[in-house]
């Protein structure tokens, strides 16, 4: 009984082993390479597969997905004899599992070595600056060479990327200094442009300010000139009216020699008011001096001893000032003043022409040659 159980157990183990050797499950995106007696037999797709047990053997399980392999940095010499460290990344995919299995022993190592040799060939024809700025050109060259070389291996290189290019430390320091100098240069250029724009705007502002100041000064001078003109017109009108009033008062008062002598005596204290007149001496013969003054005043030309005849009233016109902008009114006022002066001169010197009367009137202020004359009876007594 025990022998039968042992046989049944052995039979069960054999069946299980046979099933395990017969049924093979291949995962998705994988391919199984089957060999029969050491020779390629078939390629198993993904899923459940049946093989001959103890005869067929699944030698390799190939991954059909796109793979990424990063290679360590490798030293590469540029055209200008500088050593740079370059590390790359390869994206590839197995398209033919049979060729990837039997055409090359280790396709990843082969791709790595091929990448290094191709990279040295490409970078060796470039200087450092081109190497740092031509990554797309290097990637394109690497991809073309690798895709052509790995085609017979059943591998397709999809992309090659340069992950890093590290120049020597001294070159890095020089590049940093150059970059710093370039940035300082651009900063100085921007500063100079800003100062230039500021100077231009300041000059334009000063120009506009000077123009506005000049316009304001011009308008101010025009207004000041107009104000001076109107003030001069008003002063002329006032002086004209004052002359008319004084002349009318003199004409109405009918002055004679006694009035003039009295006014001269009133002016004597004012003569003594000057700063240079420190001492005023009144002569003892003041009476004779006044008599001589009276005789001199009696002989003034143009001033009659006695005034007879009717009074003549001079029309002074309206008392309202003429308009500031009425130049004809100012001219008429001046003509009226001149006419009134002429009429007064003609009345004081009847029988003379107006020109001679005016000439005599202008010479009346000058004393005539001294002539002996009796002292005036109506002269005021001399006072000390």
TrEMBL record:
The family annotation for this protein states: Belongs to the band 7/mec-2 family.
Q: Which organism is it from?
A: Nocardioides nanhaiensis
Q: Any idea what this protein is called?
A: SPFH domain-containing protein
Topology within the bilayer: Single-pass membrane protein
In terms of InterPro entries, this protein maps to: Band7/mec-2_domain, Band_7, Band_7/SPFH_dom_sf, Band_7/stomatin-like_CS, Stomatin_HflK_fam
Compartments reported by the entry:
Membrane
Keyword Transmembrane helix in the entry? The reply is yes
Q: Where is the composition biased (Pro residues)?
A: 369-384
Ranges where the Band domain occurs? 21-179
**Which Pfam family is one of this chain's hits?**
Band_7
Q: Where is this region: Disordered?
A: 298-384
